[in-house]
Recover the amino acids of this structure.
């Protein structure tokens, strides 16, 4: 009741204030200022759209995991699979670990402690096909140059987990050193790089080892939509900057007659 009664007064006061602010002034905006404001606004909108797209991708990935994560596990064999069809589906595979091309993915943080993800190839039973298994997180040594020991069980195993399609766009901190031998530490889980160097066929997905499965380490896997709301917040900030650029140009366009 009171808000309805007061709203005309608020609108009236705003109109009166705008009229007083522009009294004795004419709208004569700067063409160059307008061009600059449009460029700035367009750039901010593009950045906002980029952040919004990141939010959409994370939300879509989470929705897909939620819808597929409760399916019955699919058995992986020697035949190459379609990565997108298998994305986020539960899988089961039998085979034996091979440590000669095992590697650690650097700069993985768990509860504010630096460490690695352990990636071990598994030779699928009865075939030459391998699949990379992300066995989870291990802490880094006090001296980063000292690599931690990784225990790997021998003999046939049955492993369960989620099929993950790794990204292909990476931000690399410097150039990874060239070496004639196998590099035990990688900055990224680059499946294409591994497949190009391996002398055997490799499935186009990573087995993200289930917490209940054996042969793993710390496996508190992050959700695909982790911090997705942050990208949405950034998007609205950029849209706000775009609106501010235009409003500033508009306000500065009122000049004394």
């Amino acid at each position: 009741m009171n808000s309805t009664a007061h709203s005309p007064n608020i609108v009236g006061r705003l109109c009166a204030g705008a009229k007083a602010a522009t009294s004795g002034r004419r709208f004569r905006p700067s063409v160059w200022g307008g061009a600059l404001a449009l460029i700035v606004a367009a750039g901010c909108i593009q950045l906002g759209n980029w952040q919004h797209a990141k939010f959409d991708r994370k939300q879509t990935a989470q929705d897909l995991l939620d819808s597929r994560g409760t399916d019955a596990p699919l058995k992986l064999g020697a035949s190459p699979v379609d990565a997108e069809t298998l994305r986020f589906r539960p899988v089961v595979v039998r085979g034996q670990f091979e440590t000669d091309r095992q590697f650690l993915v650097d700069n993985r943080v768990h509860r504010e402690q630096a460490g690695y993800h352990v990636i071990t190839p598994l030779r699928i039973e009865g075939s030459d096909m391998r699949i990379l298994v992300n066995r989870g997180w291990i802490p880094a040594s006090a001296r980063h140059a000292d690599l931690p020991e990784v225990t790997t069980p021998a003999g046939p195993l049955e492993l369960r987990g989620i099929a993950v399609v790794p990204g292909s766009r990476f931000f690399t901190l410097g150039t990874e050193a060239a070496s004639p031998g196998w590099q035990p530490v990688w900055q990224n889980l680059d499946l294409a790089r591994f497949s190009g160097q391996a002398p055997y066929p490799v499935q186009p997905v990573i087995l993200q080892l289930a917490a209940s499965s054996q042969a793993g380490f710390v496996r508190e896997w992050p959700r695909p939509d982790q911090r997705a709301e942050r990208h949405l917040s950034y998007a609205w900030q950029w849209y706000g900057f775009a609106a501010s650029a235009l409003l500033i140009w508009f306000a500065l366009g009122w000049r004394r007659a």
